[in-house]
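Bumping with the actual sequence this time:
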Amino acid sequence: MSVAVITDSTASLPPRLVSQWGVTVVPMQLKIGYRTDDEQLFGSPALINAMEAGVPASTSPPAVAAFVRAYRAAAEAGADAVVSIHMSGRMSATVEAAREAAEKVRIPVHALDSETTGMSLGFAVLSAARAAVSGAQAPRVVEAAERRFRQSSELLYVDTLEFLRRGGRIGAAAAMVGTALSLKPVLTLRRGEVAPMARVAGSKRAINKVLQLAVEKAERRRVDLAVCHFGPDRRAEALAKELHERLPDCYAPLRVDISAVLGAHLGPGVLGITVSPS
């Protein structure tokens, strides 16, 4: 492979797909209480328990040195270029760290701001990796990623906006803060930040609204789908089943436990659907 594909852990890619397509994932940093470490060293259950107990949790991008190590490892493995694809620069300084690291290595690095995160980022990374495995050079790998993340949609139900507010990632959804507790927010990502789509009475209706919007976004096209959740959640299985029944011509939805870093900002109980034209 002449082009290496690298991303950050907010892409939330299942480990089997990371391995299958040779993607390198640089972990985001998570702080729970006084301990800071790579997010996967905590795991979702530990973070959920901490959040429910009121223990402070915060996140930060990978260090520049972590990207430098990843890029140098790619060069040593035979890559002559890197395409490094990351979460929205409006929500994190991750892509800035990647670009700074790119100046410290001898092979060209194309560091892309996806203006999204979660499986919208994950599907873009997979498209880039498939192009790289097929022998495409860096410009075509970049094009494959950009085409995918520009067309993908994230649709999210959250129990509360409080965690987004605390973490400073609330974006345009700030206008919904103070909504009556009975009204549940349905959110999306727009121009790189969290944005409101609807306020619906009750969690069940809000989740149904996410499903309805996902079906509308698919527009009878053959799209990739993912049902995303944070930690164990029986509702995710039912949502994936219903989504597949409503869109039988699409690929069966992936079930994805999102990055703990995303969970720290969205909170326990989050459910989402990613719609990504392939």
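The tokens above came from a reply further down the thread. The two ends are 22 Å apart (CA to CA).
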